[in-house]
Amino acid sequence: MQNPTPPRHLTTMRKKRKKKLWSPPPENSVFIEGSPSGFSFSPGDSSILFIFSEMGSVEQVCEDTNMGIETMEQCKVRCSKEGKGKRLWKKVKYQLVEYHSLPGYLKDNEYIVGHYRSEWPIKQVLFSIFTIHNETLNVWTHLIGFFIFLSLTVYTAMKVPKVVDLHSLQHIPDVLRKADLHKLHSELMTCLPSLTNMPGLHKLREELPSLSGWHVRELLYNCLPERFFAGNHTDVCVLQSVKEDLANIIAPLMMRPITRWPFFAFLGGAMFCLLASSTCHLLSCHSERLSYIMLRLDYAGIAALISTSFYPPVYYSFMCDPFFCNLYLGFITILGVATILVSLLPVFQNPEFRTIRASLFFGMGMSGIAPILHKLILFWHQPEALHTTGYEVLMGIFYGIGALVYATRIPERWMPGRFDIAGHSHQLFHILVVAGAYTHYRAGLVYLKWRDLHGC
What we know:
Helix 5 (136-159) runs parallel beside helix 17 and helix 12 (288-317) packs parallel to helix 17 (425-454). With 456 residues, this protein is mainly alpha-helical. Strand 1 and strand 2 form a beta hairpin. It has helices spanning 8-17, 58-64, 69-93, 122-127, 136-159, 172-177, 181-191, 204-207, 216-223, 236-254, 261-283, 288-317, 322-343, 354-366, 369-378, 383-408, 425-454; strands at residues 30-32, 39-41, 229-230, 232-233. It folds into three domains: 39-90; 122-158 and 258-454, Rhopdopsin 7-helix transmembrane proteins (Up-down Bundle), CATH 1.20.1070; 166-254.
């Protein structure tokens, strides 16, 4: 007995079951980039309406699809749920990750186990300066250091003695006529007892070279009384003018300030290094290309700091011997440029070259031993030479310990994961760099005071 012919609607269902799982999308469908195998849909497909949840309201999306009332209600519920899912995915996407999840170019220290930012958009990267991750203290230690040295630069420019403008002294006779010069003379003799046997103020020039010229303006301000008087009280403004003009008269008689450019070159190199380092640690997680650029900028900043740190001691120690001054300055400048060029090689940033990087920068710093020993041989009898050498030895200790900690990755190698947020080697390295740079700033002030007072 033959089987009866199946109904037509069952035959159609079987054909539908045998239909291919994939077919080319219709002409009016939309293609989404970045999906694993390409994803397309037509406007009537409600399964992916959540993609447009940020382009308009849920009602607007559902109405644009020309659905029925019942289907529209289901669409609203689905859009609402999947919209929340998308917002949750955004939050998850910008969460911190662990070391094993990083792309290759971000893997540098396997002992820092977690709290990494990985390929975040630039907006999230910039705002991450105010959040907690394993680069937070790396960013802020050198950013605070940058502002410290910016303040020191402004302070140095304003307070360090400069050449006095003699044209500003043309009005001094009119001011002095209003003041009690006898009282002024007695007050100066009170502060400077050696002036007792001098008949007039014009002999002050013979006495002042025996004094330190560094704080002559402050010395005079402390010596002069709050008010001069001859019968009636002298106006306070007149008193202030007398103080200013008298200091301007005396300062050129005892000092001729030397050039400041080597000292400001060092301050500029320090600020560039600190700002470049802070920027590098903040932005390098954005992309591989930006990481490459930022690391080169960071290496250039380190070389700039080391090179410009030589300028004040070399220039002010050998300013009277141009041959050795130019020799040492030229050598360290060429070495700094060569270091920057070597750091441009892509292989230079690989983790296995960490020790080579530290050794290269450490070698640059150690090359400063030659001019320091030369200075001691020439000026062993000068207390300023010993004072500055003490600062330079302390600076070398800070930098040396910093390079050692950086290369050995102590202490995180002893307890991986314990120092992810605070206390790991790179943060200690940053603090030691700021301490060493500030020590060198103090040495630079001694050099300026020494050469301003004694010259060649």
